[in-house]
Amino acid sequence: MDTSILIAARNEEANIQRCLQALERLRYPTNRFEVLLGDDQSDDQTAALITAFIRDKPHFRLFRITERLGHQAGKANVLAQLAQHARGRILLFTDADCEVPPDWIAGMLEPFAREKTGILTGCTQIVGKTGFQKLQAIDWFYGQYLIKQFTDWRIPVTAMGNNMAVRRTAYEAVGGYERLPFSVVEDYQLFTEIVRRRFAFAQRFDPAVLATTQPLPNWQSWLQQRKRWMVGALQLPVYFVALFLLQLLFYPFLIALVFWNPIAAATIWALKVVVQSAQLLWILKRFRRWDLLSYVPAYELYLHIGYVISLIYYWLPTRLVWKGRTY
Q1: Of 210, 191, 208, whose CA–CA distance to 123 is shortest?
Q2: What is the pLDDT of residues 97-130, one digit of tens each?
Q3: In the 8-state DSSP scheme, what is residue 69?
Q4: What is the CA angle 176-181-182, rounded to 5?
Q5: CA angle at residue 178 from 175 to 179, to 5 degrees?
Q6: Is the residue at 287 inside a domain?
Q7: pTM (whole model) above 0.70
């Protein structure tokens, strides 16, 4: 079998139907892929909706996850157990609140024609209505664009668990999720372990594998997401942490520079904005997301305020709430 699609679902009754319908539309022979869904102790109608949907689809299977495997918990625990049932030579991962495109499987399998490729990240978009949601969409695109640039330079950064593919031999080489210590950034953890074992990594920043996910509805959920992301960001190599701090200190430095050399400060600011805007325009053109164009000028403010708030919130003594659980 070519591939197994693994999806962890916890209290996803609002999203799971769209996810399943997108999987049903996949243009790929049904005898060459399977969809494994893990119900992570949902207390809503998630399991019932999945059961009804897959009743006449033998290549879909549902597993009720009640036990822990190894040191894992939450999403990583579900994925670890689904992987043990998977029969595909490539494991594909997406989330229960994502919709994958019809040619997703073929697009994600293509880079694995190179035998050394161990892990691949696709790309994901946010489709929202409010200004806050559209700024999230720009931020997702821009972050993935930067990861793609580093990937092209053969510098490993991370993978995205909502649109990811792993060669089974690479997954087994690290012992699977069950052999890894628990982390709230399980995708980053798996990525670093696979790269450490000298498997190649890749990213497709391409409409062919563009999945769609839901925006965060409010600032509280946005802060929780950023707190989780900061866990992964601060585990990156020291030069990436240094780049993060430089970005964080960009405007304080620029304000100080104004008093010493205002022309230099204005030049540096203009150069950053022009280069960043040009990159964003290229992204919007590539993915035909012109609905985001009017929000590009506001993105600079959103980006830097987000950096400051993320760091502050990360250091606050608050618990991390993720998928209905507190860590």
Answers
A1: 210
A2: 999 999 999 999 999 999 899 999 999 999 999 9
A3: -
A4: 100
A5: 45
A6: yes
A7: yes
